[in-house]
Amino acid sequence: MILIVGATGLLGxxxxxxxxxxxxxxxxxxxxxxxxxxxxxxxxxxxxxDLTDARSLELACKxxxxxxxxxxxxxxxxxxxxxxxxxxxxxxxxxxxxxAKVEHFVYTSAMGARED
Length: 116
Fold this sequence. Notes:
This protein is of the alpha/beta class. It has four helices and five strands. A five-stranded parallel β-sheet has the order 3-2-1-4-5, with helices on both faces. Helix 2 (37-41) links the parallel strand 2 and strand 3 (45-48). Helix 3 packs parallel to helix 4. 33% of the residues are buried. The mean pLDDT is 90.
């Protein structure tokens, strides 16, 4: 099972759909189930949770062999400010994956990326 965190975003959706087409078991962690309807129709297991909720991350990682983390909150505010999501949330996700004995973890970020 592959867990994709940020699956309703551009990179997450572009990763999830081909994996599902190839027959991989994919779980997507989303805050809003309605935004993942196409992924669910394609065969994804939709798990409602949040990077700001460590318990939901623990539950989402159960039974998962691989995690692809491509969520971000560069423009977020309040409880979804970057410090909460991109730092605290991803730190909790790494810990949850470690505790669940996830074999492979891929973290993506565009922070500091430039056109050149």
